[in-house]
Design a protein that fits this description.
By secondary structure, the protein is mainly α. The chain has 6 helices and 2 strands; from the N terminus they run ααββαααα. The protein has a two-stranded antiparallel ribbon. Helix 5 packs antiparallel against helix 6. The longest helix has 23 residues.
Length: about 170
């Protein structure tokens, strides 16, 4: 009786590992499972079939589409303008980094429209920051030796800083 329980337990504990490359291109692999001569093990034959557990069965309709709920702007407003006015509006909108409609909306409702820096503006801004920092360093260097020179250099650095603040706004 004990031997039969042990044999049953061993049969329940047997696992079959199937390499991933066999299941890569198909959902099933054909196998033929037979018991060996002493009844202790399982031998793989040619005609059995093993279906992967991770097989998905998709719904025949496919994936449900999401319902789009448009909560944004829904009304269309048109106005006439000349070709030159439209080009000017397009240029101003692109320089501020906005779409044409968003630019016109902000202009009509007197909202803030900030213009984006061009490459030249960015280059000049960085150069002004360097000058400010350099003049501050020069002022710190001559602070004890020549206080008048330090004062005038600090005044120049503060003037550059004021221009930088104007540049930002």
């Amino acid at each position: 009786m004990r031997e039969k329980d042990e044999i049953e337990r061993k049969r329940e504990q047997q696992y079959l590992k199937i390499p991933a490359h066999l299941l890569k291109h198909s959902e099933s692999v054909e196998l033929d499972l037979e018991e060996d001569a002493n009844g202790m093990g399982v031998v793989l034959g040619r005609n059995s079939r093993c279906v992967s557990v991770a097989t998905f069965s998709f719904a025949p309709e496919g994936r449900k589409e999401k319902k789009r709920v448009f909560k944004g702007k829904s009304d269309l407003v048109k106005f006439r303008c000349s070709i030159y006015e439209k080009k000017l509006l397009t240029i101003k909108a692109s320089s501020s980094g906005l779409s044409l409609s968003e630019y016109i909306r902000r202009a009509v409702f007197d909202k803030e429209i900030t213009e984006r820096f061009s490459e030249e503006h960015i280059k000049l801004y960085k150069m002004m920051i360097k000058y400010h920092n350099n003049f501050k360093a020069i002022g710190n260097m001559y602070r004890k030796r020549n206080p008048k020179l330090t004062e005038s250099v600090y005044a120049l650095a503060n003037e550059i800083k004021a221009h930088l603040k104007k540049f930002q706004s």
